[in-house]
Amino acid sequence: MRIIVILGRVLDPRGIVVNPRAGRIFVNREEYILQPADRCALEAALRIKEAVGAEVVALPRTLLPDDDVLRQALATGADRAVYIAGQPAALPDDGLMARVLLAAIERLGGADLILTGATTMDTGQGQLGPRLAEALGWPQIVGAWTAEVADGRVRAVRQDGGSFVWVEAPLPAVVTFVPGALKPRYPDGRRLINIYKGVGEIAAALERWEAKDLVAPEALTPMLERRGQDFPPERERGVRLSGTPEEMARAAADALRARLPR
Amino acid sequence: MDASFLDLLMAQQEEVTEAEGGGGIWVVADVVNGAVAPVTLEAIGAARNLAGALGAYVYAVLLGDGVSDLAATLYQAGADGVRVADHPALASFAVEPYLEVLVDLFQAEGPEVILFGATPQGQELAPRVAQRLGGGLIEHATAMTLDEATRTVQAAVPIYGGEYFEIVACPQARPQVLTVEPGAFPAPFMDPYRKGEPKSIEVAPVEPRVRVLGPAGDFTPPSVPLAQAPVIVAAGRQAGDFGLVEKLAAALGGRVAGDRGARDAGWIGPEQIIDVRGVTVAPKVYVAVGIRGDTFHNAAIENSRFILAIHPDPTAPIFRVADLCIEADPREVLPALLQALGA
Predict the structure, then answer these.
(1) Less Cβ around it within 10 Å: N or C end of chain A?
(2) In terms of Cα–Cα distance, which of A111, A186, A124 is closest to A154?
(3) In this structure, are residues B117 and B96 in contact, taking their beta carbons and an 8 Å threshold?
(4) Which residues of B touch A248 (CB under 8 A)?
(5) Structural domains in chain A?
(6) CA distance linking residue A131 with residue B196, whole number of Å
(7) Which one of A18, A20, A227 has the shortest CB-CB distance to B169?
(8) Domain count, chain B
(9) B333 CB near a chain A CB, below 8 Å?
């Protein structure tokens, strides 16, 4: 069985400061981390590999300037990773990337299961998994918390309103994970050093393909175009409510309801 | 008098008629508990604004079982035409049956723009519709404008949950598919006199491939560390009744914490102290109940998205960092707040 995990990177939000008044984003520390949801997908793939045996292949979510994300996946336990080199887009473009990944999956010789994150931390994009499922004609389980494979089927826990339900789909299938769904393991130190030093079998497991060899040049035209930035209005602090406790409570309840995460 | 002059005047309004020839802005309705979801009405309102500039009609698609009566709501919200797929096979949401109905419809109608709510249903369907039709997809739109020269919708999408927004467009790919963030657009004026005749769609039942097996009673999601909790209700020395604080946290789906005063009172453990020497937090909602707000506490919560503070002392430093301040005894406000939240 072959499991493909699609992984992306995100600028660590702890390193950036957004100043709405200046209309600028200050990057104090440019450090990239694995997309939290994609990291859960990798963990799920490794758990399935341990349970039923599988080859785990890591592919990138976007065209990346370097292959750190994939080296990290290999060090964590993936068997093979393919770095797809190409011109990175200004914004993550899942429509474009779906075309590239489809070609890459075909060149790999197909897969039984594709795992990725259900949403990205920065742009909130969740279209890559469903787009791949549609193009491949596979079923999809979006927003899984855990997944297991048995008898040619994948079973996953998904949130349904306020409760959790088990769902099942026949393989091959696409499953996307919510951030924080699983406690991810850390990369193995020795494997990590070997990958960066280019030593041993693990270093040979990282391949490099060119995006332009996978798809026609016109397919590499981005679908999304960036037209500008906008900033939320500056916060007005210290707004005092007045009235009876009941009136203040009602106003506070309305304000809370509007801001609670959905 | 039964009806006002205005009512009589409005009642003369003609039925909404549809344009021939395809195109238009299409809104796929979300039905929740037998009613049209508010995000669908907001999307229709947003579509109307675009339609004015685009010179297009607004259509809504309704899928489900026994949902035909809801078409009237969609007309009232501003739809010029409504298509209804009412079939027992569509009773509960599943990707394949819904997708086939929508794709057949859109292939026949050739929409220019398709809007979904950024709900679990919309987020599963929109990418598949976009992929099948070769369209571009912009997710979680919170504002939409039109580039009239190219008839392209430009949408603002939140980055890092709304720290800032990127304005993006799909200039080439058609149709333009967007998911609309719930609550981002104002609800439209519901015109009770706006009526129309919905058209029904033939439904060829498709078996969904993803089966729901049943409730996952044995599953508990991993606990989130306090530092990453999206909602925190924290108590301080003036909180009064800690039981009410716990009830408020439960009502908001949040975690209980406190300052050093709450720890001294024995209400919380040392791992729950919010302080630069304890836990630094950045939740979406932070409620400070009876916390005076010393420098160490206030510095630990300054990255919170929204802070509500309740404290009896008008000079409490917490009011300088809070977005919304209630100068009152928490013992008086909390019962009313719980009631207002329906807890």
Answers:
(1) C
(2) A111
(3) no
(4) 326, 328, 333, 336
(5) 2-229 (3.40.50.620)
(6) 35
(7) A227
(8) 2
(9) yes
Give yes or no: residues B64 and B140 share one domain: yes
Domain that holds residue B77: 13-200
User: What is the separation of C-alpha A219 from the centre of its chain, rounded to a whole number of angstroms?
Assistant: 22
Identify the CA nearest to A126 among candidates B124, B205, B12: B124
Give the CATH number, domain containing residue B194: 3.40.50.620
Chain B residue closest in CA terms to A155: B213
Q: What is the per-residue pLDDT across B234-278, written as a single tens digit (0 to 9) for each? A: 999 999 899 999 999 999 988 999 999 999 999 999 999 999 988
Environment class of residue A82 by beta-carbon count within 10 Å: exposed (0-12), middle (13-18) or buried (19+)?
buried
What value of ipTM does the predicted structure carry? 0.90
Point out the residue among B168, B224, B325 whose CB comes nearest to the CB of A241. Answer: B325
pLDDT tens digits, A148-206: 999 999 999 998 877 899 999 998 999 999 998 899 999 999 889 988 888 888 888 88
Minimum CA–CA partner of A139 in chain B = B209
Contact A126 B183 (CB under 8 A): no
| Partner residue facing A237 (CB), from B214, B222, B321 | B321
Chain A contact for B126 (CB, 8 A cutoff): yes
Residue at B217 is within a domain: no
Verify that B254 and B142 share a domain, yes or no. Answer: no
| B163 and B42 within one domain | yes
